[in-house]
Amino acid sequence: MYLYDSFDQKVVDERVAQFREQTERYLDGKIADDEFLPLRLQNGLYIQRHAPMLRIAIPYGLLSSRQLYRLADLTEQYDKGYAHFTTRHNVQFNWPALEDVPDILAGLAEVQMHAIQTSGNCIRNTTTDQFAGVVHDEIADPRPWCELIRQWSTLHPEFAFLPRKFKIAVNASPESDRAAVRFHDIGLELVRNEAGEVGFRVFVGGGLGRTPLVGQNIRDFLPTKHLLTYLDAILRVYNLNGRRDNKFKARIKILVKALGVDAFRDRVEAEWAHLKDGPGTLTDAEIERVAQHFVDPDYDTLSEADALLAEQKSAHPGFSRWLERNVTRHKKPGYAAVTLSLKKVGYAPGDCTSGQMRAAAKLADEFSLGGLRVSHEQNLILADVRQDQLFDLWEAAKQHGFATPTIGTLTDVICCPGGDYCALANAKSIPIAEAIQAQFDDLDYLFDLGDIDLNISGCMNACGHHHIGNIGILGVDKKGEEFYQVSLGGDSGLNARVGKILGPSFKADEVPAVVDKVIQVYVDHRRPDEAFIDTVERIGIEPFKERVYAKSH
Amino acid sequence: MQNLIKGGQHQEDPWTLIEEEAPIPATGPIILPLALYQAQKPEWDAADRDIGVWLNDEQMAEDVTDSLDNLALIALRFPKFADGRGFSKARLLRERYGYKGEIRAIGDFLPDQVFYMGRCGIDAFACRTEDEAMIALALLSPFSVRYQSGTDSTPLFERR
After folding, report:
1. Which helix (H) or strand (E) holds A37?
2. Interface of chain B against chain A, CB under 8 Å?
3. Distance (Å, rounded) from C-alpha A373 to C-alpha A397?
4. Nearest Cα to A153, choosing from A122, A178, A187?
5. Cα(A80)–Cα(A82) distance, rounded to whole angstroms?
6. Nearest-Cα residue of chain B relative to residue A239
7. What CA–CA distance (Å, rounded) separates A504 from A484?
């Protein structure tokens, strides 16, 4: 992973000093609440329902064991001994005291972490595939590009006060999109042109929230050295032209929609004509310098451990299930990537105690070269595990509640903190996730159902990505009561699609039965080996509607 | 005005900012509303005094590019500190149109924004209060490292 040099370290250290001074001025009453707001937000600090919430960046999902140990220490020293992994490569502390935040940031800076621009109307943390660098079908490793974007966007002087927040994601896999790039303000897809050169396909104007939209292609091939000047051009067009009169219409997607993608593209190209080949143009030396941090580790020369795994599988059905759901193919023979589940029934999705953090860090040291990833599905990944050690890892993961073998299934729920924590939420989301997990506790049945994304958001802001869940659940407020709207057919991947709303919303206690009926319709209609999303696509939502809203006799 | 920061120090302000429809003093440097300047551009350009203009939030850098040689100062009015359009306008004036005169931030901005403003080419800050001017003075350069290019530096990667 990327290691800071003295320049990078100085940036985070000076950021801590800056925020310490700002916090002191605020506590002295010298900054008004509304003026402190952007300053604290750009350091990840929200004022929440119960206490402030601090959102810490895990840039493009990479975390070292040392960093995770530090997070564990900080949650105990300044919080309640747990934290929440989000859907955007961040981790949140839910109970810090405002006065302590500069010290927390200083503790993070010591391990090359920060909370810079994790909130506010600025360029946020860049996200990518949790399996970046280890999947077999990647065009090129997206992580160096994510780091280059991180540095470019960090304290960018021109784009700190945009009309609204701005999110960038990078995907490098032609066969799948685990980064949901078409649902970002800018989505970048690494591609190869006919000459075999690597570049970016650029999508703009995707997003969730109140107006879910799929991003549109504005450039088929951008040579890599022009990445930052092209981003500057897009951001400048947005900064000058995006709406500032209505926060619900301020995202770049609204500007792209209003102008039309062709007119928007023309404006970007006109702006870029001035910036292209200018000072922001990346040099080969810089690309190489950053790429050096992401070269393959010293993998052992191994062959696939098929025979050993077959033997272990037949002796241990539980291991077999875990292997099927929680273990992902690795580009190197004899290795695998393992997902440590943070979806144990009875625990809030994405929540992790300090004890679990230390346990995961220890597993990373023992089994995966000291590195971890955070996925947007709110799980942890050990990306470099020897196949002949998978069984030992499974045994160890079970002890810490990480081995729930449900990755990608209905109960691997993506879920925002919801009304239990968040001041914006209309409704609770965690209890809904728990009720669904409790309803579908039969592992054989879950396996038979296969891949189903179920996403829950407690409000329109869509932190739980409900629009792009195969099954999406949205908390809504009806005259002070919490209701839930269900949508079907959302897809975050290459076939990017926003789900369709099934119909009138439900009370909380009805939701598990509704999901059950939806699943029954799928089971009744599916063809052999047809995934849930494909059945929904084929038969449409009418049969689901009929079953769910049928009068009981 | 006692609230002006320029050239890294607290300064006396020789300029008079003319609001829309306000009386104009007979002598001395004045910062005119853009529309007022444009309405009588030949007269103002011929006047024997320093002339500047101020742009409101909707007026863009392109609206003054035909007058840059005649203007000793361009002020960008921030309608609200959260409105970041002025940052892009300043960069365009400096980097694209080569404006060499003073670019001044006026209106509703925070002392905490002067570092970024300076990196975009704004070199004078008419702060809201004298207290804020003193704070702004201390916040001109909280960072010694600049990743990106700005009007003050090339990108860091060229020096790594």
Report:
1. helix A33-41
2. 60, 81-85, 87-89, 91, 96, 110, 112-113, 115-117, 119-120, 131, 135, 142-150, 154-158, 160
3. 16
4. A122
5. 6
6. B85
7. 9
The Cβ of residue A456 has, within 10 Å, a number of other Cβ atoms equal to 29
Question: Two tokens at A410?
Answer: 């209905």
pLDDT tens sequence across A281-313: 999 999 999 999 999 999 999 999 999 999 999
Chain segment A318-350, per-residue pLDDT in tens: 999 999 999 999 999 999 999 999 988 888 889
Residues 6+ apart with CB under 8 A from A228: A148, A149, A152, A280, A281, A282, B148
In three-state form (DSSP H/G/I as H, E/B as E, the rest C), the secondary structure along A345-379 is CCCCCCEEEHHHHHHHHHHHHHHCCCEEEECCCCC
Instruction: Write the DSSP assignment of A470-499 as a string of letters.
Output: SEEEEEEEETTEEEEEEEE--B-STT-BPP
**Mean pLDDT of chain A, nearest integer:** 95
Is A155 at the interface with chain B, CB within 8 A?
yes
Place of tokens 């990647």: A138
Q: Cα dihedral sign for A148, A154, A160, A164?
A: positive
B119 CB-contact burial (10 Å; exposed 0-12 / middle 13-18 / buried 19+): buried
Distance from CA of A125 to the nearest CA of B (A): 16
Of all residues in chain A, the one with the smallest CA distance to B132 is A30
Q: State the amino acid at position A436 in one-letter form.
A: I
Q: Which of B60, B84, B143 sits opposite A161 (nearest CB)?
A: B84
Q: Which two tokens stand for residue A436?
A: 């669904």
Q: In sequence order, which residues have a C-beta less than 8 Å from that of residue A161 and are 6 or more positions away?
A: A38, A121, A122, B81, B82, B83, B84, B87, B113
Q: How far apart are CA A240 and CA A162, in angstroms?
A: 9
Question: Rounded to the nearest 10 degrees, how much is the dihedral formed by the CA atoms of B13, B15, B21, B24?
Answer: 120
- Name the amino acid, one letter, at B26: A
Q: Which residues of B touch A285 (CB under 8 A)?
A: 157
By DSSP bridging, strand A82-85 and strand A351-353 are antiparallel
Q: What angle do CA A501, A502, A503 make, to 5 degrees?
A: 95
**What local confidence, expressed as pLDDT, does residue A223 receive?**
98
Model-level pTM? Answer: 0.95
Of the listed ranges A42-51, A264-273, B40-49, the least confidently predicted one is: A42-51
Q: Which residues pair with A85 in a beta bridge?
A: A91
What is the C-alpha to C-alpha distance for residues A91 and A55, in angstroms, rounded to an integer? 6
* Conformation bin of residue B7: beta by default, left when phi > 0, alpha when psi is -120 to 50: left
**C-alpha to C-alpha distance for A228 and A126, rounded to whole angstroms:** 13
Asked if A359 contacts A82 with a C-beta cutoff of 8 angstroms, the reply is: no
A162 to chain B, closest Cα gap in Å:
6
A144 Cβ contact partners less than 8 Å away, ≥ 6 residues apart: A287, A290, A291, A293, A294
* H-run or E-run covering A66: helix A65-78
Kindly report, residue by residue over B44-83, the tens digit of the pLDDT: 999 999 999 999 999 999 999 999 999 999 999 999 999 9
Mean pLDDT of A383-388: 98
3-class state of residue A395 by DSSP: helix
Q: What is the pLDDT of residue A49?
A: 67
State the burial class of residue A346 (Cβ atoms within 10 Å of its Cβ: 0-12, 13-18, 19+): exposed
A310 to chain B, any CB pair closer than 8 A? The answer is: no
